[in-house]
Amino acid sequence: AAAQSRPSALQSGESLATLKNESDSLKKKLEEERAKLHDVELNQVAEKVELVSALSIRTRRVLKGHGNKVLCMDWCKDKRRLVSSSQDGKVIVWDGYTLNKEHAVTMPCTWVMACAYAPSGCAVACGGLDNKCSVYPLSLDKNENLAAKKKSVAMHTNYLSGCSFTNSDMQLLTSSGDGTCALWDVESGQLLQSFHGHTADVLSLNLAPSETGNTFVSGGCDKKANVWDMLPCASVSCRLYDLRADREVAVYQKDSIIFGASSVDFSLSGRLLFAGYNDYTINVWDVLKGNRISVLFGHENRVSCVKVSPDGTSFASASWDTSLRIWA
Amino acid sequence: MEEVVARMQEEKNGIPIRTVKSFLSKIPSVISGSDIVQWMLTHLNMEDPVEALHLGTLMAAHGYFFPISDHVLSLKDDGTFYRFQTPYFWPSNCWEPENTDYAVYLCKRTMQNKARLELADYEAESLARLQRAYARKWEFIFMQAEAQAKVDKKRDKVERKVLDSQERAFWDVHRPVPGCVNTTETDIKKSSRMKEPHKTRKPLNTSSAPLSLISYSQQYTEYDPCFTSPEPSNPWTSDDTTCWELETSKEPGQQRVRRWGFGFNEVLKDPAGREQFLKFLESEFSSENLRFWLAVQELKKRPVREVATLVHNIWQEFLAPGAPSAINVDSKSYAKTTHNIKDPGRYTFEDAQEHIYKLMKSDSYSRFLRSSCYQELLQARKKVRPKQESCV
């Protein structure tokens, strides 16, 4: 409709001037219509919302044990255990609360870029440069060799960048440098669905937190964040921050921050955004007002992964400084 | 394709759209085939017009622009007139128009008196075939066509010309001329049994997005440990894990129970909520709805190997004629499900499940919130904890 209101060839009785006026007034009308649907910044709407009072977030635990950069971590549903994976090829399962290392697996490849905890707490998945995602059942017997029970589930044609169990231990969602995401049946290794839409490496994925929904988001080197519906055949592309408004609602940035953010997660109410950066810090943002509330120092190298615990009582960060930290 | 089409329609660097004077009247809103080719050569850095024609023909076949006087969707490098398709009809909206829609459309066309709108031979054949197929509901189809024709008549003449052509082009994509490629055919791996037609989303007023985010975060602030300390304390800061132990206990606290009132999903998310809701439904003799919903959720989580058996069990228990826990599903979902079970999969019961979900949400859920068992839980006094006194 917009395209059809442009100036047309001269008709008798019309002058260039009158046509120009017509087109100008139409353009103005369009802008007015757009403005009705348009650009109210989130922080403007949030003006009346109470400010966040100073938060006292400190490191509460430091998990040491990896020999090289920690690339990824995931929480167990029990809110205290976590799994982490590293460039040194090791995957460690920790009780974050007691700092106990409960399991350790050595992967056949270095750069284990993705790891995930199964919802039951009985298994972990991981992968990276081996182009695969494998599942290891966690045995109660400390002497048992975990590697022996390894199960190869996902196969990609390039590195594995992300993995996540969906609602159960039986299905695994993966993202890869081959530009695709895929859903796998863990037991048989069968590919259930594959999601094509990115035009470059897919770097990360995250499931929508919903009992009823079947959606997840993936982010890629093509600068796109795609939202997918796992119901067969429905793929929706979302370029910006709010799905339904179909546009960016806010941007979180500061002149003094010049390094990229590697990973983000929301606090339980969605009011706070925790973001890990390549300048070794974690910034805490007020999602509604758009300002930064605090900077958290502690890591001695890039922060690679940030995740809030399942009940929101803490969040964990993984870093290239070989450690993990739990903050609250 | 959509990105390219958007660029083609840009003010500054796009293709100029004109209204052309013709024999008896004006032809609104057109561009020529060679305009398109020239634009592509310049703006898409193409060297060979053959390449531009190929891409342009594909874009036409998918319905992004169309020749105004031809049902065959291809691009010609000459003065042939084309028009852009309205985004409403773009293939990315995942239209899957049914034959009844096509029947209404063709029927409507016969009600219009313009020569240019006469049915082509293949369309007349399709209409005849559809009349035989839908003989019983033809009166209903006719009524819809009449209603649409009435609305059309009220529109501005020029607007009508454009809209009519766009609607025709839409059908040229979804019911192509015999011999032309049907670009809407989907890969068998991706074909879905359960797609809803017309899945367009209306763009939301942008200030409602922030408003809903604000109200969500305010509602949940008391549950966010960053703002409201959990009871009795945050284990990470106090080294006391009582908070986690309380969570797993069977007796939900007031705060947790209050959260069930925020929305139906909150009840379903919380195992204690599900338990209470199930008890309530049992008292109303409608627990089969929740049990069906839970069974289908479980189905989606099981390994592929178990799927066929589970589908069969769910069907027998809840949907088959004479089922012991028969649920009430609308006829459309029932028909679809009956069809789906011939090829069982994790999403076999998607339609039925959605219907039951909506039913529980709009009906049982609100009664649950008003029920005495929920109200009692909500108003329960804080229980004295075994280890220590209530906090300061």
Automatic annotation (TrEMBL), chain A:
<dbReference type="InterPro" id="IPR036322">
    <property type="entry name" value="WD40_repeat_dom_sf"/>
</dbReference>
<dbReference type="InterPro" id="IPR015943">
    <property type="entry name" value="WD40/YVTN_repeat-like_dom_sf"/>
</dbReference>
<dbReference type="InterPro" id="IPR019775">
    <property type="entry name" value="WD40_repeat_CS"/>
</dbReference>
<keyword id="KW-0853">WD repeat</keyword>
<dbReference type="InterPro" id="IPR001680">
    <property type="entry name" value="WD40_rpt"/>
</dbReference>
<feature type="repeat" description="WD">
    <location>
        <begin position="195"/>
        <end position="230"/>
    </location>
</feature>
<feature type="region of interest" description="Disordered">
    <location>
        <begin position="1"/>
        <end position="23"/>
    </location>
</feature>
<feature type="repeat" description="WD">
    <location>
        <begin position="263"/>
        <end position="295"/>
    </location>
</feature>
<dbReference type="InterPro" id="IPR001632">
    <property type="entry name" value="WD40_G-protein_beta-like"/>
</dbReference>
<keyword id="KW-0677">Repeat</keyword>
<feature type="compositionally biased region" description="Polar residues">
    <location>
        <begin position="1"/>
        <end position="15"/>
    </location>
</feature>
<dbReference type="InterPro" id="IPR020472">
    <property type="entry name" value="WD40_PAC1"/>
</dbReference>
<dbReference type="GO" id="GO:0007165">
    <property type="term" value="P:signal transduction"/>
</dbReference>
<dbReference type="Pfam" id="PF00400">
    <property type="entry name" value="WD40"/>
</dbReference>
<keyword id="KW-0807">Transducer</keyword>
<dbReference type="InterPro" id="IPR016346">
    <property type="entry name" value="G-protein_beta_1-5"/>
</dbReference>
<protein>
    <submittedName>
        <fullName>Guanine nucleotide binding protein (G protein), beta 5b</fullName>
    </submittedName>
</protein>
<comment type="similarity">
    <text>Belongs to the WD repeat G protein beta family.</text>
</comment>
<feature type="repeat" description="WD">
    <location>
        <begin position="153"/>
        <end position="194"/>
    </location>
</feature>
<dbReference type="Pfam" id="PF25391">
    <property type="entry name" value="WD40_Gbeta"/>
</dbReference>
<feature type="repeat" description="WD">
    <location>
        <begin position="296"/>
        <end position="328"/>
    </location>
</feature>
<feature type="repeat" description="WD">
    <location>
        <begin position="63"/>
        <end position="95"/>
    </location>
</feature>
UniProtKB/TrEMBL annotation, chain B:
<dbReference type="InterPro" id="IPR000591">
    <property type="entry name" value="DEP_dom"/>
</dbReference>
<dbReference type="Pfam" id="PF00615">
    <property type="entry name" value="RGS"/>
</dbReference>
<dbReference type="Pfam" id="PF18148">
    <property type="entry name" value="RGS_DHEX"/>
</dbReference>
<dbReference type="GO" id="GO:0005829">
    <property type="term" value="C:cytosol"/>
</dbReference>
<keyword id="KW-0734">Signal transduction inhibitor</keyword>
<dbReference type="InterPro" id="IPR044926">
    <property type="entry name" value="RGS_subdomain_2"/>
</dbReference>
<dbReference type="Pfam" id="PF00610">
    <property type="entry name" value="DEP"/>
</dbReference>
<feature type="domain" description="RGS">
    <location>
        <begin position="263"/>
        <end position="378"/>
    </location>
</feature>
<dbReference type="InterPro" id="IPR047017">
    <property type="entry name" value="RGS6/7/9/11_DHEX_sf"/>
</dbReference>
<dbReference type="Pfam" id="PF00631">
    <property type="entry name" value="G-gamma"/>
</dbReference>
<dbReference type="InterPro" id="IPR036284">
    <property type="entry name" value="GGL_sf"/>
</dbReference>
<dbReference type="GO" id="GO:0035556">
    <property type="term" value="P:intracellular signal transduction"/>
</dbReference>
<dbReference type="GO" id="GO:0005096">
    <property type="term" value="F:GTPase activator activity"/>
</dbReference>
<feature type="region of interest" description="Disordered">
    <location>
        <begin position="182"/>
        <end position="205"/>
    </location>
</feature>
<dbReference type="InterPro" id="IPR016137">
    <property type="entry name" value="RGS"/>
</dbReference>
<dbReference type="GO" id="GO:0009968">
    <property type="term" value="P:negative regulation of signal transduction"/>
</dbReference>
<protein>
    <submittedName>
        <fullName>Regulator of G-protein signaling 7-like</fullName>
    </submittedName>
</protein>
<dbReference type="InterPro" id="IPR036388">
    <property type="entry name" value="WH-like_DNA-bd_sf"/>
</dbReference>
<feature type="domain" description="DEP">
    <location>
        <begin position="11"/>
        <end position="86"/>
    </location>
</feature>
<dbReference type="InterPro" id="IPR036305">
    <property type="entry name" value="RGS_sf"/>
</dbReference>
<dbReference type="InterPro" id="IPR047016">
    <property type="entry name" value="RGS6/7/9/11"/>
</dbReference>
<dbReference type="InterPro" id="IPR015898">
    <property type="entry name" value="G-protein_gamma-like_dom"/>
</dbReference>
